Every structure is written in structure tokens, then in C-alpha cells.
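Re: the pair you flagged

First of the two:
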Amino acid sequence: MNCVIDVGGGLRGIYGAGVFDTCMEEGTEFDTCYGVSAGAANCVSFLAGQKERNLKFYTEYAFRKEYMSWGNFFRTGSYLGLDYIYGALSNSDGEYPLDFDRVISSGKTFYVVATNAETGRPRYFTLDDMKQDDYGVIKASSCVPAIDRPYKIDGIPYFDGGLSDPIPIRHALAEGYDKIVLVLTRPRDNYRKPGNDIRIARGLFRRWPNTARALYRRASYYNRSLEIAKQYEKEGRVLIIAPKSIGSMKTLTRSKESIWMMYEEGRRDGKAIRAYLAEEKTAPKNS
């Protein structure tokens, strides 16, 4: 059994979109997909077999004011137009519908990680929590604190899954997968620094204290999870796919040149996956 984890990262998620497009071209399959934030959108298009669907979202739709803008923020309280992205664009009558029937018929397992805003704990949604034209779990997983209102599912508010489980490697290991492909959107040796998280957490603490606490912990949790992934990589149980550089790309940087560069890098790096999945698991290497 194998799985892929796409950690997302806003518009840096274009790197994962490139990885998955190569996988579709080469017929590479995964038994399970884990998606965090933008990584969930990449995964669901992959499960639908819709090659280059996410490319259009990153290179065209993301530049529309309905997708993300301060106009959205002042009008609705959310910078990201999640209902536009995963509704108006993605619904069956939308501009680029998700082939949800194919997602269901794929027979694959799909985990979408979101953060319960009240507890600060991760929730691992599955396909059982989704249905045609109701992609609320992906909206919840992509809801960025401080610039978005929390997204409610069954009355419970959620924020971005990257707050509470930015690299869900522990969950995948506990599930017993033999081969895990981890798709990062930062260089593999780029450890997270807590400064920005702490600044955002201070502004959230009064209304969402447990979300703020999750933000305080995020850097250390990310870094520890990355170390775990690297350790298991030595044993052949994990393959880390990561860009060599992100240049000036930040979570919400809209630069077509940078987006295209990361996409092409993802496509190239994705070529390593098929061979990795075909290999027998090796004995641990000397560190």
C-alpha cells in the first residue's frame, strides 16, 4: 500500500500540481491521497484524472478578483473566495467542473486535513464527507486564519489544515503505508521559522485561543514532521519531492513567471515517483 501527501502552501501548490500532472501522464497511481489546504485541491483533481485542471486555476483563475482580493475581504470578511473557487468554478455547472463521479469511482482513499478552530486539533475528512457540488471540506482545509473567516461544516468552524498538521506523516505512518511520497512546497532543508506564525497567533488569541496555540506550535510540529520523513526516507519508506528553490514565492504571491517555473520544476521532479514506487523497500542506510 502506498500514499501521497501534498502539504499545499497557497500558490506554491502549483509545484504539486506539476508533480501530479506528470503522475497522470505516466500512469502512476496511489492507494491514498492526503491533501492539506491547496494540496487537497491538487489531490482531488488527480483522483478525477483531470490533467492540467489545477494549472488553469493557478495561472488564470487566481488572477481574478473573485478568487482572492482585498475587495473580497472587505465585502465578506475573507480574502480568498472559497465559494467561488470550489463552487462557482468547480461545481457541475461551473466554469471548470470537477469530475466528482470519477473521484468516487476511483476507489481510492482521500484524506483532507482541516483544523477545528475551536479546539486547534486536526480533523481528517474523507470522501464520505463530500458529495457532488459540496466541497466544503476542501474549503475548510484552505481557510487561512487572519485573512479568512473560519469555514463552518455542520456548525463547526474550521481553518487551514496546515495549522494543526502541516505534514501529516505521522497519520500516514500509523496507517501502515509501505511507500509514502511526500510533496513539499519548500526546499527539503527549509525548516519553518515561528516568527510570522506568532505574530498572527497574537491577533487570533482572544477569539480563537486554541487556533492561536496551534499556530504557536506549527513551526516546531512542521520541523519535527520533516525530520521524521527524512529518517524514514533512509529506510526507503518515504520519498521526499521538493523544489530546490521557491525564489520570491510566498503563499499568496501572484507572479505568473514564478508560478510557471515552479510548475515545470514539479513536472520534472515528479518523474522520480514511478521508479520509487516500483522499487523494493531497501534496508536502512547509514546516516
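Second of the two:
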Amino acid sequence: MKNKKINMKVVLVAVALLLAISIKPLMNIFHHSDESFEVEETVKVEPVGPTFNADSAYAFVQAQCDFGPRAMNTEGHEKCLQWIVEKFKAFGCKVTTQKADLQGYDGTILKSTNIMAQYQPQITTRILLCAHWDSRPWADNDPDSANWHKPILAANDAASGVGVMMEIARLLQQEKDFPLGVDFVCFDAEDWGTPQWYNGNVEGETWALGAHYFSENLPEGYEARYGILLDMVGGQGAKFYREKMSKQYANAIVKKVWKAARQVGYGSYFPKSDGGYITDDHVPVNQKANIPTIDIIPYYPDCAQSSFGPTWHTLDDNMEHIDKNTLKAVGQTLIQVLFTEMDS
């Protein structure tokens, strides 16, 4: 009886070993096919850096909208241009502009101006933050077709990204001995892309024209450790899924930013799930400027109007649908990224 019991134990051990051997490859299959199985190191880190002021960022968004639509070749566009330049200068940044005549989808010549505001331009280690500042000339996704040729105010799809960057610039001006340089780039001519109602022939790129020009004509010797694009970062109900072009070109930066969001308590705004592949300003920055750059952009998987949210390219993209909580979540996450970068 004693030998029999011993043999049974041997059998049980052998079965356990076989199960372990067979289960491990199965778990590897799950690991590679679904990132929800990804085991991630969890380290509790206290929030660092200054407190992002959502009221201040909101005011910067409002100020841009006060100029009205800022579509290419309009009076509102030129007035807002001067305001953005002067505001970044007031926050101690060195500001340069990059002007170009670009051609729209229909042959229209677009008087484009990219704006670069550099915090501590003398420092060689630099982080790029960027957003587009021009507004969509047409509400071509509005549920009412009577509005398809009307310009939008672009509170979220333009002004929100610039507003968040301005608040970060304001906060950085108050910091002493900050060891990094930060470049705030406002891209122009992003939203003159072919409207949905246009039936003519179109050749070449029509979206993100300012970002393409910037990436092909970088300031001499310009380098950045990485870039973060902000697009529509103030909308109600926004959640920022991991954009797939960002993962393709700069997955390490995606992980860095989404981890920072959890560290400061805004993980619910940055779910550990993937969105789609988005053609946005970060694509030419990755492909032509060779700066690994990600896109923080909302994804609304259940929105019938658009996966970019119910106000995208509609007349409802106004201040009534800007949420200070969203601005805060994005802004404080970026502060965490910048101030933990100091230790990298």
C-alpha cells in the first residue's frame, strides 16, 4: 500500500507538469492576441509638478473662440494668429512663425502659418507638444445638411489643444531649474481636408497640410526626444483610447503617457484599450521629421454621429460642449509626463 500511494503522487506530479507545459503556450497565445492579458508593472507614484488649472485652460479656449471661426484666409484666423503669438511670448517663450502658401483640395491657396513657441530654447533635450489651431471651414458632418457649408467655431477641434498647451506654458514659466526644453507647435491648415459633400477629383494630401510642411522644413538642427499631439482634448464624455498609428511609431511614448494618467488619477479617461488608425498631424511628424510622436485623440465607440464624438465637424463644436474635467485630465497627465521625464 505504501508503494501504491507513492506511485499515485508521482502520477499527480507528472500530470501537473504536463498541464503547466500545455497551458504556458496557450497563455502566450492570449498574450499576443489580446493586450487585455498584458501584465503591467504597477508602481505607485505620487503626482509631481504644478497643479494644472482647468479654469485657466478653459479661458484660453474661450478666447480663441471669441475670434469666431478661424478658418484659413479669414479675418478671424489672422487675429487669432497674433493673439496666440503674443500669449506665448507673454509666458516667456521664444516664438517663431513658419509661413507658407499651401494648396487646398480644390486648388485654393491657403495662407498658412505654423507657430513654434519654445520654452528654454537654449536646452538641447526637448519635448514637442503640438496641436492644430485652424478651424474647419464647413460643418460637413452636421446632422442638418443645411449647415454643411457653414464654418464651425471649433472649440474642441482646434482651440482645446492650444488652450491646454498655453496653460502648460504658463505653469512652466513659474518653474525654476526645470531641466528640459519644451516646444509648443501650433499647426495650421490641418482642417481644410476634402469635405464630405465634394464630388470633384482630389490628388495628394488634403489634411494636416501645415504639419506636412513643418515636418519637411524643420528648423535647422531641430531635434526632439519625442512628441505628443493634442487633438480634441476638451470634449464632454471624451475618453482617449490608444491610437494605433501612435502605437506603431511610438509605442513606448503611448505607454509612458497612459501610465502617467493612471498615476495622477485619470486612468478612466485613458483606458487601456485601442482605438483606430487616425490620419492626423502626428503622421507626417513621425514619417518625415522622424520624431516619435503620439496622438491624444478621443474615441467614442458607441456614438452614431462620429467615433470622434457627437460635435465633430458640426455647429455644436462650441463652448457649451467643452468640459473642464476633460481639460484637467489631459493637462495634469502631461504635467506628470514632463516632470517625471526630468528623472529619465
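Residues 1-42 have pLDDT under 50 and may be disordered.

-B.
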